[in-house]
Amino acid sequence: MKIYTVDAFTNEPFAGNPAAVCLLEKPAEDVWMQKTAMEMNLSESAFLVKEPEPFHYQLRWFTPSSEVDLCGHATLASAHILWEQDSVPFDQVLYFHTKSGLLSASYDQGRIILDFPVEIPGECPIPDVLLESLSVPVVSVEKNRLEYIVETTDEEAVLQAKPDTRRFLELDARGVILTAGSSQEKYDFVSRCFYPALGVEEDPVTGSAHCGLAPFWEKRLHKSSFSARQASSRGGDLFITIEKERCLIAGSAVTVLESTLFF
Q1: Does the keyword Isomerase apply (predicted)?
Q2: Chain segment 96-138, per-residue pLDDT in tens
Q3: DSSP labels for 11-69?
Q4: Catalytic center residues
């Protein structure tokens, strides 16, 4: 059985966020998928099964420690592999049946565009653990159903932050996003994302986080289209547009490894 490693949200190998993509002939057992994700040891592994309807797929995502409800970079990687390896025409929209509903992906001028739900954050009480564990000034804090979004003063503060991520395990959320407006003209905002509860200390590039970051910055910048940089050590670029209750997230991908599973 073939399994691929794809660097998502980058057009360069060994950058962006690597995801494993496994094309299954039939649904697999949860335990097997979890063990495979542990073996791949990437932030997410994606497992796809064809649906009877053409260009429709079941899609599930696993970190090395658990299944997740929504994942952007592994969805982008999955679409990339289907177009590159599975003889799907590039002008064909792909549909994914997931725990977060029906998602889709399309291809346009070298970029893959994901159609995801907007995850609107709102004001919330600021947990003491956030103030105690972050090493940067806190300007504002909001929360959606997935994570806390913490705004700090500037891009340099995001880059230099050294949070005590172990303390994030005390929070009632899958993780914490640290963000600020960008000092670079080509980006509107930058971010870093931390998910120790999912077994991911810092995620290199997180597509689903931008379902919350886009409406967060929409209120502050009074615009609905953004160019964003996730400022992890690998780094990645995302292009996001809000259309009603949907978040269109665009990026590139590169296949870096093709391997065979024997078990």
Answers
A1: yes
A2: 999 999 999 999 988 999 999 999 999 999 999 999 999 899 9
A3: SSTT-SEEEEEEEESS---HHHHHHHHHHHTSSEEEEEEE-SSTTEEEEEEE-SS-EES
A4: 44
